[in-house]
Amino acid sequence: MSALTLARAQFALTVMVHYLYPVLTMGLGVVLVIVASLRLRRPDEIYDRMARFWTHIFGVVFAGGVATGVVMEFEFGTNWASYSRFVGDIFGAPLAAEALIAFFLESSFLGILVFGEKRVSRRMHWFATLMVALGATLSAFWIVAANSWQQTPAGFHIVHGRAELTSFAAAVFNPSTPLRFLHAVLGSWVTAAVFVGSISAYYLLRGKHQEFARRSLRLALVFGLVALAAEVVVGDAHTRQVARTQPEKFAAIEVLHRTQEGAPLAVVGQPLPEVLLPKLLSFMTYFDFNARVIGLDAFAPEDRPPVTATAMSFHAMLWLGLGLGVVLTLGVFLWWRGRLFVSRRYLRVLYCCLPIPFVVNEVGWVTAEIGRQPWSVYHLLRTEDAFSRSVPASHVAISLVMFVVIYIAVLGLTLHLVRKKVLQGPDGGAEKVLS
Amino acid sequence: MILDLVWFVLVAVLVAGYAILDGFDLGVGFMHLLVPRSEEERRLCLASVAPVWDGNEVWLLSAGGALFAAFPPVYATVFSGFYLALMLVLLGLIVRAVSIEARNRGTSPAWRCFFDRCFAVGSMLVSLLLGVAVGNLMCGLPLDVHGEYAGTFWGLLNPFSLFIGATTLAMFAMQGACWLAMKTEGELGKRAVTAALFAWAAFVALYLDATLWTPSDAPWLFVRARQSFAPWIPAPPMILCLASLPILLRRGRLRLAFLCSSIAIACVVAILAIAACPIFVLCTNDLRRSLTAFNAASSPRTLLTMLIIVLCALPFVLGYTAFIYRVWRGKVRAEPEEY
After folding, report:
1. Which residues constitute the domain of residue B275?
2. Is residue B116 part of a domain?
């Protein structure tokens, strides 16, 4: 295999495993802020237990995120040196800003959040919780802004074969940044909500920690449903923005081969037999049944993204995401009917939903990144021209094997530690085991 | 021009901040196999760094990010040139991050012993290889016409660079032992002081030796130090701090000792940065290809924007870093504090 293919595999592996961590901690941080606020307003032993339990899990997952994430900051230089030279003038800034503004904030206050309850006042502990959540969200902003610049570059001009900044604001708030940032953040909120709900459902099914589980489940359902409703609106707006800013990605998502007016929507596509709804795609994209939608034929074959992977990952995200919406809505409905905590069938379904939001977030990113191909920076730099020329394939192979082994180990360890804490429960003698 | 130099200084400051702050928790990483004798003591050692190591590591990410933003060709050439070495650094960083989090979450002695060793090995690997990387930058690198590293992996493991790696290891051991001496008490504290004295002796010996080696292996640094007065400015405070360190340790002025060790590290970084300025990577096969703060800088607009961000963010960062160290001030206690 070529060094390029190996480098791409390595980046995909490291970034996808890494994202499993922040996608949970970003949302769980908000859950912690909600619980800490409730606790500050109305001190109650149940809120203490909730705060401690979810903070413990937050701590375990955050550590995994730090461990897997440090790689990303280096990988642009090690594996994508040509890319770094080409875009460094623009792309480096948000990365540095992320470290300076976001990472310092979250890592510094994390120590107080996890270890410092007895060292600082309640109000200070609440503030530390808020800062950790804020840091995580700011971090998402900068990294999504950097990635969005690759999708829809703005605020630059090309000088001496490299992109140079003309407007920092235009580069950071490029056409896709705001929607993609909201999309990613809301996705992480849904993930945390389903995670909290699923573990609560597990306790209810086992008849353990009832009061704790009920409170957590209600919080999760409200938080999750609000986030998911907003996500549907943002996701829809984002898709229409992609149609305007990256038409070939949009054509690949919707498997539209031919540019046409009144384009049909493929409700079911490959690998299943196609079901087409006439004119619907034009309407959904431009609110006009006869609008012209650009198809893949408008682009040279070497400029088209891989259609199958883009379309399948997009539809997996869409249907699984909507499925989660059904589950959360049903939960709120059962709660209203007073049957939430007794319907074992529902609790079992919710329990089984645990991995789904992670999958949804991952395939969403697959759509975004595969759909950007063959470009590393949209219409400016091809992926094949972006990687490090001085690094031989054998070296990338060695590091790839190393990352496969270590990332599986880290992932396994995180799962083990989270599972252990869940089995131990919120009352478990954690305080005695840990220092 | 001024902006380029300002950013050269800022990168050096971030590297110095990293060496001082992560320096002590890397040092604790390998000293905790030597200094503590019991499980209780080992736990105290780790508890002294547990709430802060994560923030310390952000200095490395900031230095990397700043290098990427301000000097992209340097970031690209150095990081791709040191490929396998940096992958091992990453391995070390991952292993130590996981180990310190995992070790107290298991109860069996085998579990803890395993992660203690992982933490130590990871910390050593990171310290050694970052030192080797600095050693290679001191020697200079062969670059091709595109500015890419033209040597081999084995070329990076030359005796001089390995020696600088060992010196860095000793420097962090000194910093880590001084931290432990400051944070612990009783028998454990005494042993930490002894360890700090040994590490100090090792560092001073290695550093002197490395200085004597510089004229032959990194002649350009030596020539610049002879031509100009500037690289010598940080030398007196460094000598003063290193000379007073053993006295302070023996007299039990442990906070002052840690401060001296930190200042000495800052001076070590400063001497190197001033001697090298404005050169980041000296190209050994064609001097004109060398990467400097002038020919490798980002556009003035980027540098200025980033400078404004740094000037806005840094007071906050320093402010809450100081606040957090204040929260954790004093001797580390055995009471269980984590959830």
Report:
1. 2-327
2. yes
